[in-house]
Amino acid sequence: MSLSRRSLFASVSALAAAAALPRFAFAADAAAIDAPKAGGAVSVHLAAEQRILNPALRASTGVYIVTSKIIESLVDLGADGKPVPVLATSWDATPDGKTITFKLREGVTWHDGKPFTSADVQYNALELWKKHLNYGTQLHLSLEAVDTPDAHTAIFRYSRPMPEGLLLRALADLGYVVPRHLFEGTNPLENPANTAPVGTGPFRFVEYQRGQYIIAERNPTYWRKGFPYADRIVWRIISDKSAAVAALETGQVQLSAYNQLALADIDRLRKDARFEVSARGNEANAFNNTLEFNHRRKELADVQVRRAIAHAIDVDFFAENFLYGTGKRATGFIPSNSTAFYPGGSFPYPYDTKAAEKLLDQAGYKRGSDGTRFSLKLLLVPNGEDVGQFATFIQQSLADVGIAVEIVQLDMAAALSTIYKEWNFDLATGWHQYRGDPAVSTTVWFRSGSPKGSPWTNQHGWQSDSIDTLIDTAASEVDPAKRRALYAQLVDDINRDLPIWFATEREFVSVTNKQLKNHHNTPRWPSSSWYDLSL
Amino acid sequence: MLLLRFALQRLVISIPSLLLILIGVFILLQFAPGDTVDALLAQIGGGDSTLAEQLRQFYGLDAPVTVQLGRYLWRLAQFDLGYSAIYGKPVAEVILERLPVTLLLMVSSLLVAVVGGVLLGIIAARKVNRWQDTTISTLALLFYATPSFWLGVMAVVLFSIHLDWLPAGGLEDIGGGLHGWQRAVDIARHMILPTLTLGLIFLSVYVRIMRAAMLEVATLDFVRTARAKGVSENRIVTRHILRNALLPLVTLIGLHAGTMLGGSVIVESVFTLPGLGRLAYDAVMQRDLNTLLGIVFISALLVIVVNFMVDLLYARLDPRIRAKGH
Amino acid sequence: MPVLRRYCRNPSAMLGLVILLAVVVLALSADQLFPRNPLALAGRPLQWPFASPRFWLGTDTQGRDIAAQLFHGARISLLIGVVATSIAIALGILVGAVAGYYGGVVDEVLMRLTDAFQILPNFLLLLLLIAVFGSRLETVVIAIGVVSWPAPARLTRAEVLSLRHREFVEAGRLAGLRDLRLIFGEILPNALPPVIVYASVVMATAILLESALAFLNLSDPNVPSWGNLVGQGRAVLRSEWYVCALPGIAILLTVLGVSLTGQGLNDALNPRLDEQ
User: Fold this and answer.
1) Are A416 and C224 in contact (CB under 8 A)?
2) DSSP secondary structure string for all residues of chain C
3) What is the dihedral of CA C238, C243, C249, C250, to 10 degrees?
4) CA distance linking residue B154 with residue B160, whole number of Å
5) What is the mean pLDDT of chain A?
6) Chain A interface, mutation test: which of B37, B41, B160, B161, most A Cβ atoms within 10 Å?
7) Which residues of A touch B176 (CB under 8 A)?
8) Which residues in chain B have their CB less than 8 angstroms from residue C214's CB?
9) Do C260 and C2 meet the contact criterion of CB atoms below 8 Å apart?
10) Cis peptide leading into residue C271 (ω within 30°)
11) How far is residue A166 from each of residues A163, A208, A336, A398, A475, measured CA to CA in Å?
12) CA distance A425 to chain B (A)
């Protein structure tokens, strides 16, 4: 049931005219107030400049928060967490999992007027997602061809079984479609459409002023009739966190998502009646604070030492005092809000300094005359201010059990290069983002074989054939129940061997001005298309 | 004609320094751990090694250092500043977009600093050791000692958050669709706090210099002569003292040009202004060599130009130099 | 000594000295008053000053005692100030003396080098050096020193130039003294006073530069420097602004002390200005 703007205005003005009517008119009035008003401009906080505004080439929340209003994906996630049709209206997989057929939506046009067809999907899948999109290259490793028997059908053929659940959950993030007629024959990385995106979405790109703002306005030929409600969206680029909070408090900006603000400010704004501060609308995303071990250090190659380190750090204390309630201790590498995969259970190494000391003594590293057993270098990947705090917390906790830790602070590029390319670290801490399914970006932390220099993969000098096999099997297991069991086993194995520790489980928090309505109503809302957002 | 020769002379002398800087910065950045592809991968949240290889080839980072330096210098000789990795645009375009904001910030800060410094310095010197002098001198010292970022941040907390008199950051209200005069006023409002933050530090230096210079000049023979001849105090100040007292101040402006550009990095960061300072910081963090070298080039040129203008001003103010026919 | 007497009669100079001594006392007494590691977790984070009897000045975002960090930080700030300044002055004197004494091509080359360093905005160069060599305290201090040497070099050169042709130098040359002895034995002792006074300016700038780096989270996180506190406090600026304000005041007072002392020295050495 869609409301056209005209009919909406008509009903509101009719009700206003009927204000003199008796009591039952109030109920109608209330309904009118709750019904979305059309019009208005929405201001959004964007913390980092984006080089390439193309979600078919770049999979990151920073890109989605802008481009997903302009460019759409084959599917999105609905309020219940299950995939809902967007550009794809239905899908069907063969029992062997190697062929998945998508029926595409009809009557959809690109912002420049040309029709959206299966040829676009074919081009995107084979040339962009498979060749250039980070995490897409891995997902579609076994994609062989995309057949297009007609303009509204795309058949994906894989050489290895592709679990339907994995593909659909991943496509919400990794299935954005850009126009073939603008990209074919060009070098996709240099294409001007990367800074002036064209898509099928509810908003059209207007302007990108470097260092200042991006503007998009209502698309009058959007295929969802009657939407979008808002007239325009303005993304203000504010990289300084205190400036961003100031902008939010003075009303210059109405929404800040994905923890782009300082945690202390997020906590303070919870008590401000003007804002809604919650993790609602972010259920599909979770992230962790990691503690990575370099197994090339002989002390860290010993699993007892790693377990001792886990025992020595009071993650609950850290979460309570430094994360302002936006995180808790993780039980394993799958977050508790991943309903399809969370196996439950508890982390086998609770906070216990005595146990830690015992394990370290057993492993043969007694305290020296100055109380130190050995020293380690801890590198941090500065994703957020909590990473620095966790690093300090680790330093202090390990000092209590006799391990001296020196923190090495580098900027992002240097940190990634030093850890993942030069392997010049003992401990490292940063973020890991879980993208709905362990196979998308999580198992790559455990599996061997990633080339040197790939950030956020297993560059730790540790390998286990059994775990490699388990990961590969689970990635191609078509039966969802069996798949779930395989990952549950992987969680147990990883917790037992602890090659890397996902210490905390964190939620993304958005701060939204209550002026906005119809927001955060899907599980990955800041990355969704906002077609029903209103003021 | 003399002026042109003077100008060319200055320029020619500066070229070796300029080259030194460019080559030095280029070589220095080669030693930085991580390159622009690492920064890009960091920004997009990961990627595999084939992607990294592709990108490195695309940005020409797989060639040896000497070749890269050679390519860069050759392009520079043709006035081509290269292609920015961060923005996917020619560096010249990126810099031209951001230059006006930084220039606006620097010019207004300089104006505030110089005009304020001169006026307050004169007042302090005229009322030496009285309460006006003490207040001004103390405030000047306090502002000099205050870290600029602290001043900026506290100013935002006071004037934006608690008093809501001035905007918290940015250059202008976007989506408001203002034009012409209204837009100019809007930008001016946004620039008040950043200008004061950057300018007050230099103002404090100029106040003290002005005061000291005026006090020193006032004791010189020719002033005493003028006073003896019965010339009015005001005339003495404006015609004789001021001219000479301005000389050390003018020299300082030249020396401070570079420092002001550096200070704009912090101010632009705190107030989210889209200027060159912030661009330089981003270029260092993202290892975008071309953009960084472009900014270094432009700021070096700016400093040279400012020093040149300072020399001209100095020559006008000091008749002895003009007499020597420099 | 007339210089000392003139210094003591100057109220602002004495104030500067008092402040500086207070900072030194802070630094020296840090171990007595706060024997625990100032960077160790001491209590609940973000407690306000005077709220708890254990933490007079409250705790920071990591639950560390702010008062302890202020006291121990005094040592770090003085260290940074003194070492960076020494490096800058030493480099500056070397370059300036050689350029001023020998003149000619040597002078030209060294002056082009000095020009290069002065044209490049010093904060930018500092950012570059930190990005390349890292954020350890030693690196930060050396980087600040390297960025600050041009002004002392010019000053030294100007002084050496003016002294080069004086009679006592000529006499020394005629007496057969070697160049090095002339420079270090005769010229420099007379050229140095203004440069030493300028050292106070360099020191003030060094402390401010380090705190600016820490504000951008580019300084060494393993030492309790004031700048690091300010950098941390940035995240909680709206609500717990004292985390930024207290070390900011400490930096302000120290820089004030250094500047006043330097100015006092300058005035004491140049009596003309003192006759106002």
Assistant:
1) no
2) -HHHHHHHT-HHHHHHHHHHHHHHHHHHHHHHH--S-TTS--SSSSPPTTTBTTBTT-B-TTS-BHHHHHHHHHHHHHHHHHHHHHHHHHHHHHHHHHHHHH-HHHHHHHHHHHHHHHHS-HHHHHHHHHHHH-S-HHHHHHHHHHHH-HHHHHHHHHHHHHHHTSHHHHHHHHTT--HHHIIIIIIHHHHHHHHHHHHHHHHHHHHHHHHHHHHTT-S-TTS--HHHHHHHHGGGTTT-THHHHHHHHHHHHHHHHHHHHHHHHHHHH-HHHHT-
3) -160
4) 10
5) 88
6) B41
7) none
8) none
9) no
10) no
11) 5, 34, 18, 39, 8
12) 13
Q: Please answer yes or no on whether A321 and C61 come within 8 Å at the CB atom.
A: no
The whole-angstrom distance between A407's CA and the closest CA on chain C is 6
Burial of B132 (0-12, 13-18, 19+ CB in 10 A): middle
| Position with higher pLDDT, B290 vs C269 | B290
What ipTM did this prediction achieve?
0.80
The SS3 assignment for B5 reads helix
> Is A455 within 8 Å of B38 when comparing Cβ atoms?
yes
CA distance to partner chain A, nearest, from residue C150 (Å): 28
- Closest-approach residue (CA) in chain C for B32: C132
Residue with tokens 């008199």, as numbered in its chain: B165
Cα A8 to chain centroid distance, Å, stands at: 35
Average pLDDT over residues A49-77: 90
* 8 Å CB contact of B34 and A417: yes
**Do the Cβ atoms of C236 and A265 come within 8 Å?**
yes
- Closest partner residue to A245 (CB to CB) among C63, C220, C238 is C238
Confidence band for C259, pLDDT divided at 50, 70 and 90: confident
In angstroms, how far is CA A347 from the centroid of its own chain? 24
Please indicate whether, in this complex, the C-beta atoms of C238 and A410 are within 8 angstroms of each other.
no
Q: What is the pLDDT of residue A157?
A: 94
Query: Please, are residues C65 and C59 in contact by the beta-carbon 8 Å criterion?
Result: yes
Query: DSSP letters along C226-242, please?
Result: HHHHHHHHGGGTTT-TH
C63 in contact with A, Cβ within 8 Å: yes
| Structure-derived torsion over alpha carbons of residues C22, C24, C27, C28, reported in degrees to the nearest 10 | -110
Alpha helices in B61-130 (DSSP H): 65-77, 91-126
Which residue in chain A has the smallest CA separation from C238? A265
Mean pLDDT for B58-86 is 80
